[in-house]
Amino acid sequence: MSTRTLIRGGLVVTAADEIHADVLVEDGRIAALAAHGSDIAAGWTAGRVIDATDRYVIPGGVDAHTHMELPFGGTFASDTFETGTRAAAWGGTTTIVDFAVQSVGHSLREGLDTWYAKADGNCAVDYGFHMILSDVNAHTLKEMDRLVQEGVSSFKLFMAYPGVFYSDDGQILRAMQRGAANGGLIMMHAENGIAIDVLVEQALARGETDPRYHGEVRKALLEAEATHRAIQLSRVAGSPLYVVHVSAEEAVAELAAARDKGLPVFGETCPQYLFLSTDNLAEPGFEGAKYVCSTPLRPQEHQAALWRGLRTNDLQVVSTDHCPFCFKGQKDLGLGDFSKIPNGLPGVENRMDLLHQAVVDGHISRRRWIEIACASPARMFGLYPQKGTIAPGADADVVIYDPHTTQTLSAATHHMNVDYSAYEGRTVTGQVETVLSRGEPVIEQRKFTGRAGHGSFVPRSTCQYLN
Known about the structure:
The chain has 467 residues and is an alpha/beta fold. It has 14 helices and 19 strands. The protein has helices at residues 39-42, 81-90, 108-119, 138-150, 169-182, 193-205, 212-217, 220-237, 249-260, 271-275, 278-281, 303-312, 351-360, 366-380, and strands at 4-13, 18-26, 29-35, 48-51, 56-59, 61-66, 71-72, 75-76, 93-101, 126-132, 154-158, 185-189, 241-243, 265-269, 317-318, 398-408, 427-437, 440-444, 447-448. The strands form 3 sheets. Strands 1, 2, 3, 4, 5, 16, 17, 18 and 19 form a 9-stranded mixed β-sheet that branches. Helix 5 links the parallel strand 11 and strand 12. Helix 4 (138-150) runs parallel beside helix 5. The mean pLDDT is 97.
């Protein structure tokens, strides 16, 4: 028996259009749209009718950069796939793409299977995986081909973290060449980790141990240098490149210059770089540890370049790099030594709201909000138009969004499994009201009605942003 839901009276906002339309959902998919008040829409009936008057009807968010249960610095990210995907749903995100980790000396298959096991039966919303390559060799290069066929079509390499995730330029070039051949998209953490380690050692020797020094040693120039190098390697390999968590004006300039040459080079930034700064890292006592992530927060003047990059499409995607560690018991592993503070911030629940605030503040348009948070990540990572839009045939991942209400972000009210909010006390305009995932209500009128296990693994095609 078919299950039908009718969403009436809202403003449907996609990356392409804003239309006053009713949306008919059938069997987990968008069945049709019709102008509100038209004869067609008036003839529709459904078992569930949602009144979206004075609301936006938007596609569910696609967060293409999360780290649930990530092992890092002797501990694990505090959100499980269950708690993290539930929090994502509360924030209007209906698909995450998480990072499966290959450990040095182990196969990609082993790492991927470990992540399948972590997520299976635990997710409230749909999920896919990228693969972190920590050990590029003849065997793992062959494995890349098989993973692309399986729907894991993007691979992350690190120019940072020597001894953990780091790959040298030769390994990066080989992986890029393989990606050029098999259609896999290479994602790059672009920071010169070898040079950063020298600066860390020197800072600690001088007794500079507070969290703020984390930002000072991971210099913007070393992000820009690594971004430049990654771009040149991708040119040599003939492969597209996606640079993750771009935080610095100089790195944006490298991406813009490459794109001006017509190169298939893409960039992502994150809410923390748009809304937070080194002022947070310098908060008194050990409070700055809450804001330790890599790439690090930058001085506030970098924010204008990031917003400009989002407007000019030199940056295409806003993801969260959600990687939460509790302040007590995890972040404090780095008391007296900033280099031991686990790197990462919570944010999967806040992204859609913060970006709506950016619409209110005039940084971006409504359609651009949906583009950078839903449509572009879906296209970049082979999920479109199943995800990222409201159109006939698409999965019915739909958010009813109240653009008028205000809310105050706080650890007291968020649903992420972490004991602080990076945006504590910040008031934003707009709030998620109801969320459908493949037509099933996950949030109804600000109540969680979803369940662990509803979310399915979504195999992805290769990057569609190149088409």
